[in-house]
Write a structure and sequence with these properties.
Length: 214
């Protein structure tokens, strides 16, 4: 059976991917920032088949080469790790933009070096499509449309800005390095939470309910 790497295994979508790949009988590797964080990582070890077929690696999007070991030798990579909710008073460049853009390039670079990766699936976002001045005129939007980075900057849409540039850079790097890239652009992904602690999507819903501003 092929072996896959899922980046950011503690994430909402990634945990489902890891679980599903294990259920299908694959060998799975996943990356987390802190393998010692039992509260976050523990659930991954409890999935059916995890004991025999799941390996957990430490990797950070901000560290060049950090994903090399996890990706070396695998057949495919699902790149989902990305900061999603970042409070406004944070250093947006360091906490959101750099991990999203440079982190994606780091992952693709590891894929290129590995020489075994047949396909990479990147989780981008509908945010990389829909933020543009002419959105009313071009509806319905499709994969040929992009968010306008200048529009994103004007309205402080930094997540959309980072996802847009991140996806564009991913397509460029994939072309340059001969990587078979597939991009998915979800809108709002909801469903039962696998993790014991709320992940970013649930925190966003809670913030709306409680009237917090992110
Ligand atoms: N959920 C949605 O509704 C939705 C919609 C559209 C697109 N997406 C995209 O889908 C992907 C997954 O979303 P999600 O909601 O599942 O995210 P999530 O639950 O917030 O998980 C994000 C993951 O990224 C990891 N991460 C953040 N910064 C990192 C860094 N510097 N280095 C390494 N890992 C880092 C987190 O690790 P830690 O546990 O260490 O923080 C976590 O595992 C993201 O790319 C997101 O942009 C999500």
């Amino acid at each position: 059976m092929p072996e896959y790497c899922v980046t950011g295994g503690t994430g909402f979508i990634a945990a489902y991917l890891v679980k599903s790949l294990l259920e299908k009988g694959h060998r799975v590797r996943t990356t987390v920032r802190d393998p010692g964080d039992v509260g976050k990582v523990g659930l991954l070890r409890e999935f059916d088949g995890a004991k025999e077929r799941l390996k957990i690696f430490k990797a950070d999007l901000l560290e060049e080469g950090s994903f090399d070991e996890a990706i070396q030798g695998v057949d495919g990579v699902f790149h989902t790790a990305s900061p999603v909710l970042v409070p406004h008073d944070d250093n947006i460049q360091a906490t959101l933009i750099d991990p999203c853009i440079n982190g994606t390039l780091n992952v693709l670079n590891s894929c290129s070096k590995a020489n075994t990766v047949k396909r990479v699936v990147l989780t981008s976002s509908c945010s990389s499509i829909r933020y543009r001045d002419d959105v009313q005129q071009v509806s319905p939007l499709n994969e040929s449309h992009w968010s306008d980075p200048e529009y994103c900057k004007r309205y402080d849409l930094w997540y959309a800005y980072a996802k847009t540039i991140g996806e564009k850079e991913a397509w460029r790097a994939a072309k340059e390095n001969g990587i078979d890239l597939v991009v998915v652009n979800p809108s709002y992904v909801v469903g039962p939470l696998l993790a014991p602690q709320p992940t970013s999507t649930l925190l966003l819903i809670l913030a709306i309910v409680k009237g917090f501003v992110f």
